[in-house]
Amino acid sequence: MTQVAEGTRSARRAELIGAAARLFSERGYHGTSMQHLGDALGLKRGSLYAHIGSKEELLFDVVDDGAERFLARGAEALASTGTAADRLSTFLIGHIETAIEHLDAATVFLNEWRYLSDHLRSVVQAKRDHYEGMIGTIVTEGVASGEFRSDADARFAVLLVLSAGNWVYEWYRPGGRLGPQEIGEKFADLIVSGLKTKRQKGSA
Amino acid sequence: MTQVAEGTRSARRAELIGAAARLFSERGYHGTSMQHLGDALGLKRGSLYAHIGSKEELLFDVVDDGAERFLARGAEALASTGTAADRLSTFLIGHIETAIEHLDAATVFLNEWRYLSDHLRSVVQAKRDHYEGMIGTIVTEGVASGEFRSDADARFAVLLVLSAGNWVYEWYRPGGRLGPQEIGEKFADLIVSGLKTKRQKGSA
DNA sequence: CCTACCGATCGGTAGG
DNA sequence: CCTACCGATCGGTAGG
Fold it and tell me: Rounded to whole angstroms, how far apart are CA atoms B64 and B62?
């Protein structure tokens, strides 16, 4: 019975986090009021506090959700076999697929996390660092093995990859002529080719 | 005398727009109150309305300022001579230099413009379209002349270039080991090389 | 999950 | 450019 009550409560909570992801991504964190969130669920403003502790906690839940999705997908790419170029492609494709499949959470993760207060923001910062480290690992291995240009500064390539991937939510709209997979592959193709050594290019 | 009064008034207005660029970029449009803006200028909240019509008008001024800087710089690159690859590099370097040199205005231009109401947002949208069109022109010419891979879909390359350039404000901090010029060149090198045909690469 | 309320703050205006 | 004010709304709580 407590089970049922708990079950119901977390279902509501999940609903609330989903609505928050959508509203925060559309209107921004500061542009979304508890009233907006209540309206979205058909509840009164004050009733929301039966499910959450504060508005900021809700932001954290959405952001952390987004972070975890990127991390899980990134870990898969990191663990995959193949050349560094293959794994970098896989990583980038996964990044873009994740961003597109969970567009709301990804948008909030990328745009609104900076409004978290110090403590919660540092939790997210650690996850972001971890994620960037994954890309750095692949690039460094590619340089070491001679696949990538030795002047291709690893840190810089990481930024390029993230830059390309992170802007997707700006222009991607469901139902366009390219799906997540195609977009990821095209990005990966252009970027990875820019990293490759001449010898590798010739032999491809 | 009216001259002097007008002069004083616009100096204040410019000050206000500068403060708004900084605050909106740090705290977001909805996270910045007129009180914050007043404090930044040492004025009372209500006094700001001697210089502006509304908070939204202030957002438009900052965003439009950013748009105009990108457009001016882009027009220079478009008018420059050289191969399509040269001009695309010039364009991208200019984009990144502009973003870095006017980091606050660029950040607001890229992140906060969506909070403008329909009319003002459409004015900005037209300028964004114009800007994207400039890049499209260069890429299309590069494909036509055989410099760029024919499968390098122009629209897609535009997105890649903008994606790479638009994320700069996320990680760039003044005083880092790379300056705007170096960052722009590195980006341009990686991206343009991904667009080039094999023949062009060999002859480079 | 609601009603009713808290103090604080919001953008903006009038009148000087 | 300030004082004093407008109605509306903010996030959040108490008590049921």
Answer: 6
Q: What's the start-to-end Cα distance of chain A, in Å? A: 62
Reported pTM? 0.89
Q: What is the C-alpha separation between B116 and B125, in angstroms, rounded? A: 11
CB contact B159 to A (< 8 Å): yes
| Chain A touched by B122 (CB under 8 Å) | no
| pLDDT tens-digit readout, A39-74 | 999 999 999 999 999 999 999 999 999 999 999 999
Write down the residue that tokens 């060149």 correspond to. Answer: B185
Cα–Cα distance, B111 to B133 (Å, whole number): 20
How crowded is the C-beta side of B151, counted as CA atoms within 13 Å? 7
What amino acid occupies position B163? S
Which of B156, B191, B201 lies at the smallest CB-CB distance from A186? B156
The span from the CA of B44 to the CA of B38, in Å, is 5
Residue B48 CA distance to nucleotide D7 C1' (Å): 20
pLDDT tens by residue, A26-41: 999 999 999 999 999 9
Please give the Cα distance from B93 to B39 (Å, whole number): 36
Q: Which nucleotide is nearest to B12 (CA to C1')?
A: D1
User: Could you give the residue ranges of the DSSP H alpha helices within chain B?
Assistant: 2-27, 34-41, 55-79, 84-101, 103-111, 118-144, 154-166, 168-171, 180-195, 198-203
Sequence-separated (6 or more) residues with CB below 8 Å from residue B106: B66, B69, B70, B98, B99, B100, B169
Check CB contact of B83 with chain A, cutoff 8 Å.
Answer: no
